[in-house]
Amino acid sequence: ALFLLQIKKVDFTDDSFSVSVSKSVNEVIATYTKDETGMDLVIRLPPSYPLRPVDVECTRSLGISEVRQRKWLLSMMAFVRNQNGGLAEAIKTWKQNFDKAFDGVEECPICYSVIHTSNHGLPRLACKTCKHKFHSACLYKWFATAHKSTCPLCQSPF
């Protein structure tokens, strides 16, 4: 219940975005509205949260492909689980991803997010061959774990 109270305290003021918290069912619903239609992000907290992961789903598509929705949800769940991210911050990042997607910014092919979850940057480093853009932190991690400095998508030297 403490986590839900923290979300209630956050100011999400925006004409196109609203967040409602239901303590009785341990649920948070964030609604993003665009051109008279909307998309809901439903976050269900298990009774043993944070020991057990949250359940996250999207309802209504708002013109976003199912694949992109799934990538954003995976990115959000990874943020909440692995980086000790707060739910309010994860909701803000989800909203920022929508804002940037509607502005035409492509997501990073490594983390599937438009806004990087830790430094809040946009994908800026572009491959000279395939032109895909990556977050610098994602690319650095890719180079370090792959032990090579090639594009994650087209494998050409970066």
State the shape. Answer: globular
Helix-strand category: alpha+beta
Element-by-element helix/strand order: HEEEEHHEEH
Tally of strands: 6
**Beta fraction:** 15-25%
Largest sheet: 4 strands, antiparallel
What does this entry look like structurally?
With 158 residues, the protein is an alpha+beta fold. It is built from four helices and six strands. It has a four-stranded antiparallel beta sheet with strand order 1-2-3-4, covered by helices on one side. Strand 2 and strand 3 form a beta hairpin. The longest helix is centred in the middle third of the chain and has 17 residues, at 66-82.
How would you concisely characterize the structure shown here?
This protein has 158 residues and is α+β, with helices and mostly antiparallel strands. The chain contains four helices and six strands, in the order αββββααββα.
List the helices and strands and how they pair.
Blueprint: H1 2-9, E1 17-22, E2 27-34, E3 37-44, E4 55-59, H2 66-82, H3 87-102, E5 125-126, E6 133-134, H4 136-146
Antiparallel strand pairs: 1-2, 2-3, 3-4, 5-6
Helix pairs in contact: 2-3
